[in-house]
Amino acid sequence: METLWRLFSLQDYNTRIVLAGACIFGAAAGLVGTFLLLRKRSLLGDTLGHATLPGVAGAFLVAEALGFAGKSLPVLLFGAILSGVTGMAAVMLIRRFSHIKDDAALAIVLSVFFGIGVTLVTAVQQLPGGNAAGLDHFIYGKTASMTSGDAWFIFWTSLGVAVVCVAFFKEFALLCFDEAFASAAGWPVRLLDLALMALIVLITVVGLQAVGLLLVVALLVIPPAAARFWSDRLGVMTIFSALIGLLSAAVGVGASAVFPRLPAGAIIVLCAAGFFAVSFVFGSRRGVLVKSQDERRSASRLRREHLLRAIFECAEEDAPDQPVDMSRLLAKRPWKSKALRAEIERAADDGLVARAPDGGNVRLTSRGLAEARRLVRNHRLWELYLLNHAEVAPGRVDRDADLVEHVLDPKIVDELEALLDGERRQSFVPGNPEKLST
Question: Which of 187, 221, 255 is the last residue of a domain?
Fold first, then answer.
């Protein structure tokens, strides 16, 4: 309890520093990762993360050979940036001058650069004092052991990335959703794309200190992917993504402070995965629960509409409001008797149909008759369109119209009426096209 109190009250200077740096990095990664996800370049972050390893090891070797301090953070990060940019350029060259697709180009660059990096790291470890170089921290991260200088560097660099993303939010949004329109409108598409890639390289390099190159891609992809389940609006999605990245970093650093033996970088990623799992299940826009509820409501609506249309068509030859025997309804569609009776019960509870006392037949109420007429009218208007303008065979129009009638809005219905001749438009419910064609 004492440890928890010291954590929540931020009494330790090191905890405050690490928490500030990790949180602003998580927010910036979630922010720029949103555009990366929408550009369908999520694997690019993983490739860049692995491509920085040769630069880190190479910068250490070059600095040591020239007599400088190889463990200098600016030197190592400069090497990481140079190597990351080289990896990105290699991906673009492979895509431009070959028929290799994006995923294969990314996989090639990732594996080759990571192989070179592991070789150079092995060479560093064989040097005198190489084991103390600390390059493994760039692979696995060292969130909990960051110095104040490292934390402030991460803080200000991540803050700068976040400010640039906010300042160019409109331009990056246009680039993500309609690159062709942006180019036709005179926007510098290539320059904007390069700027976005530069921000991704920068946040990837900064993330090496926090979570390591193996896990930095997680904070670029998981927060925006989780935010996608909560909103369809880019602004809201961006805010959610930044918040998820920030909270993941905060919880991960807190857990690492309470349990020092746990690796903070891995805990941060696991927290982000936890937020993703919650969003995946409970997301208000695309969550599993919401989608399942929508699918159930849609299936119930379709069953209801099929029932009303079947009753109307069975009674149409006499009078639409006359009772219809259950046997005729069962023959109308591939229903099971139990399922049909259950649907009739639900429709009766809603006041759309009325059942006979013996349960042998059913008829439409005035409200149900109005709804059935609308459904049959839309169905037959679409059938007439398929017959007259799409040249669909008469035997197929009923099935094809059955797939579309449920999504016809009033505007489309008006357009269908305009395509049909005046005599058929005068009737509220056109005649059955299949019988007319016969």
Answer: 221
- CA-CA distance, 96 to 416, in Å (whole number)? 47
| Residues 357 and 432 occupy one common structural domain | no
CB atoms within 10 A of CB 89: 12
Domain-located, residue 329: yes
Joined tokens for residue 248: 């993941």
Residue 236 near residue 286, CB atoms below 8 Å = no
Regarding pTM above 0.85, the answer is: no
Specify which residues 364 forms β-bridges with: 353
Element containing residue 273 per DSSP (H, E): helix 264-282
Does residue 171 share a domain with residue 37? yes
Q: Are residues 149 and 172 in the same domain?
A: yes
- Distance (Å, whole) CA 21 – CA 25: 6
Q: Which domain holds residue 349?
A: 290-364
What does each of the 438 residues of the chain score in pLDDT, given as a tens digit? 666 666 666 667 667 777 888 888 899 999 999 998 888 877 777 787 788 888 888 888 888 787 776 677 778 888 888 888 888 888 888 888 888 887 788 888 888 988 888 888 888 877 765 554 566 666 666 666 677 777 788 888 888 999 999 999 988 888 888 888 888 888 888 888 888 888 888 888 887 766 777 678 888 889 999 999 998 888 899 999 999 999 998 888 888 777 777 777 788 888 999 999 999 999 888 889 988 888 888 888 888 888 888 888 887 766 766 788 888 888 877 778 888 888 888 888 888 888 877 667 888 888 888 888 888 887 777 777 666 665 555 555 555 555 555 555 566 666 666 665 554 544 555 556 555 444
Distance between CA atoms of residues 80 and 57, nearest Å:
9
Domain boundary among 194, 221, 248: 221
Residues in CB range of 189: below 8 A, 6 or more apart = 175, 179, 182, 183
| Packing angle, helices 288-315 and 337-349, rounded to 10 | 90
Could you write out the DSSP letters of every residue in 314-360?
Answer: HHTTT-TTS-EEHHHHHHHTT--HHHHHHHHHHHHHTTSEEE-TTSS
Place of tokens 């509820």: 293
| Six token digits for residue 283 | 């997301």
CB atoms within 10 A of CB 425: 15
DSSP code of residue 83: H
